[in-house]
Amino acid sequence: MKWIACLLLIITAGCGKSGGDNTSPPPVTPASFSFQAQRVDSVSAGFSYYGTGTQPAVRISFSDAVLRSSVAAACSFTAKSGDNVPYNVTWEHGDSTLVLKPVAPLSNLTAYTVTAGTTLLSVKNAKLQTAVSLSLVTAIDTTDKFPRISDDALLTLVQQQTFKYFWDFGHPVSGLARERNTSGETVTSGGSGFGIMAIITGIERHFITRSEGLARIQKITTFLGTKAARFHGAFPHWLNGSTGAAIPFSTKDNGADLVETSYLIQGLLTARQYFKNADITETQLRNDINAICNAVEWNWFRKDNANVLYWHWSNEYKWDMNLPVKGWNECLITYILAASAQTPVPKATYDSGWANNGAIRNNNLYYDIKLPLGPALGGPLFFSHYSFLGINPKGLKDTYADYEEQVVNHTRINYAYCVANPGKNYGYGADCWGLTASDIPNGYTASSPVNDVGVIAPTAALSSFPYTPQESMRALKFFYYKLGDKIWKEYGFTDAFSLQHIWFANSFLAIDQGPVIVMIENHRSGLLWNLLMSCPEIKTGMHNLGFTSPHL
């Protein structure tokens, strides 16, 4: 039996020697190499950094030590233009953190990208599993761009420079204001109303003489009375500055625009009250203005005597636009003028149409500030500007609101929103605020706290001087002294800018430039408020609508 056991032992050993066990060796697990964290200087803010210094230290940490020789090919530091930024590399945490720092200071307010690609290797020769990329925007240059002057001198300078848009750039034939600095023949009726008020301001501030201003406004009124297209007395939004023909604002908006007409009439009535001398020239101007204003058929725009005004009408499309003028928005002046006409619209049109039988009220709190009227958070700031270039809101009340409270609180809410900056837009704050309608990158929008695209329009804060003088002055100093190299140009401040997107408009718009010079003047002297509120028909119309004011 012993020999059988030996035989089995030999057989078993032979089978093992011949490789009968086909089990493969366990696979080798490659070393893991992955991104762990990143920060710029002492800040950890995900993958986007704003307001960094010009020599930032970019730290990127990995799960293992980095193979130093792989960094040059795998990592890049580039400007938005595509230019490579030379950088030095230092090491921390046993080479698991690399620190990239530009050799020379970066440019201010410029976007850069730092990337570590998948060709980056660990000391164990493992490739980075996923590329890492972060963006950074350097801070603005906080040095003053212009010498410091007194606050009063700064206000005058802003008014004088902005005035040039309407004076130097006014259309040579009609004298009317071009829609924007690239508009050529296209002039704007509403913006020209603002421009007329700007000309009156220019006379008072001695930018031009009274006779020069009178001659320009005579040119405007002669053109409006003899050449400009009118539809039941109302003007189109846009006109050809040489021929007076209507230029469509949109396909069906090729006729009357009652709201833009209101802004024009507001300016004309202000001029009538200003040029009150008994000589033949000023007398003729007043007569011409009265003829233009009295020709507007306000009641026609009630469309079959409805208790609401309609914004548009044209020969071709009739009432197809079908846009009732209902509040709260920029159109209060439209109802005030309609109630001030020789044949005034009835008060029921104001109550049922504009005030929507009281639904115009809001009375909610935003940032602990009560808003009497209008949409949530107040809407764009031009709601509190356009109608109040001539209508003085101070002490003004009716059934629906205290209008001083309305415009001041609307502005304060806009300011508070920008300071709180819930959208984390770079640059927003007590120095840099103001959301209203303006140009934006690749377009135009009515910015507000509920439609915030990261764009600030200087007209928003500057046209609010009568309401928030301290906050507006702080914004003005920031716009002029800190951003002046980018936004202060031949006609004052350009239309808008975004520090978030590093974008600066090169445009000027009449409806944004006009309120700047006019509302700064109302803040300083009340000039335009005093003139329009002195109109006998305005006093009567506002009383008929139920307004009370110490200025009526």
UniProtKB/TrEMBL annotation:
Residue ranges annotated for the Glycoamylase-like domain, each copy included: 324-536
Key word Signal present: yes
Keyword terms: Signal
Domain SbsA Ig-like: 54-124
InterPro entries xref list: Glycoamylase-like_cons_dom, SbsA_Ig
Superkingdom of origin: Bacteria
Protein name: Glycoamylase-like domain-containing protein
Species, as recorded: Chitinophaga ginsengisegetis
